[in-house]
Amino acid sequence: MKTVDILGQRFGRLVVIEKIGRNKTGMYWKCDCDCGRKELEIQSYRLRKGKTTHCGCLFGEDLSKQKFNKLTPIKKIWDKNCYKWECLCDCGNKSLVRANKLKGLKTKSCGCAIYDYNHWTDITGQKFGRLTVLSFLKIHPTKGTIFICQCECNKIKEVNSGHLMNGHTKSCGCLSNDEKRSRTGKNNWKYDENLPEFARKYRRSSDDKKWGKLVKKLHNYTCAKCHQKFDECALDAHHIQNYIENPSLRLDKNNGVCFCACCHRIFHKKYGLSNNTPEQIGDYLKNVEMRNKENF
């Protein structure tokens, strides 16, 4: 293998002064560090790939009196298995930076330098959906340009300018609530005009859930059609005599039968969704045909 000659070259704080030779792990060179340490034996690969750029002096060097672009180191702390410097940025924010990133100028600010060139657009006074932009608030290092907006419901909200301009944010949250309310009641596609009001309230009541649990327990969590046992959540309780015509029997546990979700769907597909009768259940249970899962 041909050896790359790096004699006399500089890698960070290290200057290559002499070739040592090759062993099982690779080619080694003697290097001098800028801090004064001499004749350090370092692998050629680590020098050329930038994995070793100093003798270790950067980790122990006091950087508290120096400034690196916008960052001023304050104190050294231990964070995530390594030492880092807590730095104060010119914008007032604090951040944790490793010493080699400071010395190598790879980290120049807390992140605010990205927004130093006024790339953001002033949208004060414009309206986006229900939000009217009142004023500029701040430039956040990670969230971008933040504006103060007023919603039509008079609530004040801080919104990222990008979310406003791409239509992601259109209100303080009231628009989503209004859309949900518009899909309830008579506006819901499942709304049944023939269903009495007491039956509609019963479907949402805790009594309905309690009745269902009693029916499932009474039938030992077994489907009346396929005779298989299921968990409680996989079973449906079905009224034998519909409670719209027999309201006094709607909470009677003896007026119920258990179906698994599959058998329950097949029943309603065959006999309809409302005004079911005990005769329909009897006819369905006598039918010895296996469940056809392709029916739903």
Short description:
This protein is an alpha+beta fold and 296 residues long.
List the helices and strands and how they pair.
Layout lengths: L9 E2 L2 E10 L2 E8 L6 E4 H5 L8 H4 L10 E9 L2 E8 L4 E4 L1 H5 L23 E2 L2 E10 L3 E8 L4 E5 H5 L8 H9 L14 H7 L2 H13 L16 E5 L16 E5 H11 L6 H9 L10
Antiparallel strand pairs: 1-2, 2-3, 3-4, 5-6, 6-7, 8-9, 9-10, 10-11, 12-13
Structure description:
The chain is α+β, with helices and mostly antiparallel strands. The protein folds into 4 domains: 10-55, no CATH class; 60-114, no CATH class; 127-175, no CATH class; 197-295, no CATH class. Helix content is 23%, strand content 27%. It has 9 helices and 13 strands. It has helices at 44-48, 57-60, 99-103, 161-165, 174-182, 197-203, 206-218, 261-271, 278-286; strands at residues 10-11, 14-23, 26-33, 40-43, 71-79, 82-89, 94-97, 127-128, 131-140, 144-151, 156-160, 235-239, 256-260. It has a 4-stranded antiparallel beta sheet with strand order 1-2-3-4. Strands 8-9-10-11 form a 4-stranded antiparallel beta sheet. A hairpin with a 3-residue loop joins strand 9 and strand 10. The longest helix is centred in the last third of the chain and has 13 residues, at 206-218. The protein is elongated and about 100 Å long. The two termini are 69 Å apart.
